[in-house]
Amino acid sequence: MITHDYEQNRSWSDQFIPQIKNIVGSHLLQAAPDVLDMRQATDLLMLDGKDLRIAARVRRPGYADRFPHQFTIRSAIPSGGKTELAKIVEGHGDWMFYAHSNEFGGLQRWWLIDLRAFRAALIRDRFGESKVRWGQQSNPDGTQFAWFDVRSFPTEPRMIIAAG
Question: Which of 52, 68, 116, 150 lies deepest, with the highest CB count within 10 Å?
């Protein structure tokens, strides 16, 4: 069942898809080596040739300055359905684009996150090998989000692919 809230939120976040595609796309392509350019008519190469699944989350204006090092992932919904965090923990998704929107309809502070490194850090944290700072936040509409401080993640494997 698709709720009105979902449709409304999806419509709002979809306005950022062209900007997200421009940012993420620039990290998927790289210049080809000279030998490929000269011998195989190849100017660009895909960074990773496999199917790459990318989650995207854009936070509403007003949070970037209050939580400059934090990204959030929905962890509970009133219906009890599966959330983004559950899907990511189960192994779905390769990258996540996370950004803060501004009052002018653009994106400001953003991260391109390697979800494999994110999952690895959560596993290490569970066994006391790292100290990921995180917590839970409840919203008036009954949803909950887990928040994570990007500064607390290990540098290897590198979780932040790019930032802007």
Answer: 150
